[in-house]
């Protein structure tokens, strides 16, 4: 089995991925509603409002869906591309963080150019389980992420994105998960779970660990992250 810790599954239009356990994230109310209906033994479902949608989505109607979800996400802060101001983004993120604590759920976080602020909100609020997806943040924050018991995901773009590769070199295997960010188009290519074996090959090489052993480590990390204690 392969593990995809962050995938926009509904954007892949019903494609089947038999060898994958997928954490399906949402962006807004409509995608949250569709995503929760996909829940099965191989698809974990998340609901949330992506920071890019904070300016045009109602918070309360999405919060109403969290009890049907396995985890919260995709939520977070984006100081580069989001249309909403910082204050509104923080208000939404904090509401989902509080809900994750109430329901003892993992938070699947987008934190572009807002890595430290997002981390501080999670730790100050007392979140136990969180994933920083497609981590390209500061290398010194990796120690704190490890200390807090949180995780980062490595995306197949590690094959060409230098910043992401440097993160992989620095991050301990204990905090690494794999993701596709499937359903998202990046540099003209539609990302898919089937890209994950490419990421595994690179992680295996960079970390000098056999692929089979690496798959076991990632499975364990995934189960710890999503499954609780
Ligand atoms: Zn995403």
Automatic annotation (TrEMBL):
Gene3D superfamilies: Metal-dependent hydrolases. GO terms for molecular function: hydrolase activity, acting on ester bonds; metal ion binding. InterPro entries: Metal_Hydrolase (IPR032466), TatD-like (IPR001130). It is an enzyme of class 3 (hydrolase). It holds the Pfam family TatD_DNase. Keywords: Hydrolase, Metal-binding. It comes from the Archaea. A divalent metal cation 1 binds at residues 6, 8, 74, 181. A divalent metal cation 2 binds at residues 110, 133. Its EC number is 3.1.21.-. The keyword Cell cycle does not apply. This is Deoxyribonuclease. It comes from Sulfolobus acidocaldarius (strain ATCC 33909 / DSM 639 / JCM 8929 / NBRC 15157 / NCIMB 11770). The lineage of its organism: Archaea, Thermoproteota, Thermoprotei, Sulfolobales, Sulfolobaceae.
């Amino acid at each position: 089995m392969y593990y995809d810790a962050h995938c926009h599954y509904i954007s892949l239009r019903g494609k089947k991925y038999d060898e994958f356990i997928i954490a399906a994230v949402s962006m807004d109310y409509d995608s949250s509603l569709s995503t929760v209906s996909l829940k099965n033994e191989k698809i974990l479902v998340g609901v949330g409002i992506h920071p890019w949608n904070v300016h045009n989505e109602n918070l309360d109607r999405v919060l109403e869906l969290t009890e049907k979800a396995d985890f919260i996400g995709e939520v977070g802060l984006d100081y580069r591309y989001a249309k909403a101001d910082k204050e509104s983004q923080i208000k939404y993120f904090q509401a989902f963080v509080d809900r994750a604590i109430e329901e003892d759920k993992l938070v699947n976080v987008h934190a572009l150019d807002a890595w430290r602020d997002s981390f501080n909100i999670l730790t100050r609020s007392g979140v136990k389980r969180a994933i920083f997806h497609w981590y390209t943040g500061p290398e010194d924050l990796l120690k704190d992420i490890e200390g807090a018991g949180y995780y980062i995901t490595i995306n197949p773009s590690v094959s060409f994105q230098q910043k992401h590769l440097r993160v992989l070199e620095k991050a301990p295997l204990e905090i690494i998960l794999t993701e596709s960010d499937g359903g998202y188009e990046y540099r003209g290519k539609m990302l898919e779970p089937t890209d994950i074996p490419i990421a595994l090959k690179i992680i295996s090489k960079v970390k000098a660990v056999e692929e089979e052993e690496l798959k076991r480590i990632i499975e364990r990390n995934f189960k710890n992250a999503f499954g609780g204690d």
